[in-house]
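Our platform keeps sequence and structure together, in a single record for each protein. Such a record has a labelled line for the sequence and another for the backbone structure tokens. The tokens are whole numbers drawn from a learned vocabulary of local backbone shapes. The remainder of this section carries one protein's record, kept here as part of the documentation:
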Amino acid sequence: MVYSKKDLLAAIDAVQNGASVKRAALDHNDPRTTLSDKLHGISRIDERKGPCSIFTPEEEAKLVNWVFTCSKPGFPVNDEQLLISAGKYIEELKRENPFTNNVALN
């Protein structure tokens, strides 16, 4: 289920103003268990599950821009090219490369 932080905050506000967790989750398109976990302090509101991102939002935006730039003249980037390029980008940034053989694996 895809939900936004804005929806999650609205659902939390609804519960704090008397709505049930189930009703707030349905009204704001949030997973009920996620909403409950946030309300009970099991996970922080600004925290996402899963591994930390390797790239900053700005670095991710540069990769996305590169993909779109390549695609405009008719040269779409395939999965393999993107994974290799992500590994090369980490090297350019002179940061520790967490990828096996310097290639991001999906």
About this structure: The chain has a mean pLDDT of 87. The chain is about 55% helix and 0% strand. Residues 30 and 54 are 26 Å apart (CA to CA).
